[in-house]
Amino acid sequence: MDLYAAQLRRWNPRINLVSAATLDDLAGRHLADSAQIASVIEPDGHWVDLGSGGGLPGIVLSILWQDLGVRLTLVESDRRKAAFLRQMIRELSLSRVRVLAERIESVDPLAADNISARALASLTNLMPYLVRHLAPDGRAWLMKGRSWAEELEAARRGWAFTCRSHTSRTDPDAAILEVSRPSHA
Length: 185
Ligand SMILES: C[S@@+](CC[C@H](N)C(=O)[O-])C[C@H]1O[C@@H](n2cnc3c(N)ncnc32)[C@H](O)[C@@H]1O
Description:
By secondary structure, this protein is of the alpha/beta class. It is built from 7 helices and 7 strands, in the order αααβαβαββαβαββ. It is 38% helix and 28% strand. The chain is globular and about 45 Å long. S-adenosylmethionine is lined by residues 18, 51-54, 56, 75-78, 81, 103-105, 118-120.
């Protein structure tokens, strides 16, 4: 994790992986925030991280889950960020992790057992991605900021789904939304 943090700092000025203002608290704001997913769920099968950016939470989870049987796919359309992710996979010797440098909406359906997304889009705008890429009994773990309750209310107007909220361990006003069975309302 230290090596990953060092590389995030090194590459950040060139490709803006995280907001420069948050670099001082990389460990708490980004790494611990991403790692908390691993304390909420024990994964197996195929895990898909959408809009991985610099690897949050995808690379953090890949590091934590190296010894488990989980297979991870990181989807990131920005070519330079995807190159960074591939470099991290090589440098950290992460196995069973791949990067798709494509748009989420263009990738063939992934039938994921689990999906994560952090700082990617509003819950309403994430719904088509979940419908496309979740397996029928799959679950999504959506890392949401302080407006999560409003986002949930808005998404319920156009979509049917089951949702359970987990209070964030790094910000008591934020939440991880566990979403399953999404479909058009
Ligand atoms: C705000 S960043 C968040 C990155 C990371 N998840 C994090 O928490 O730091 C959103 C990322 O999603 C990627 N992205 C946005 N829309 C996408 C799409 N339709 N398909 C693939 N990647 C997308 C962007 O290139 C960007 O790297």
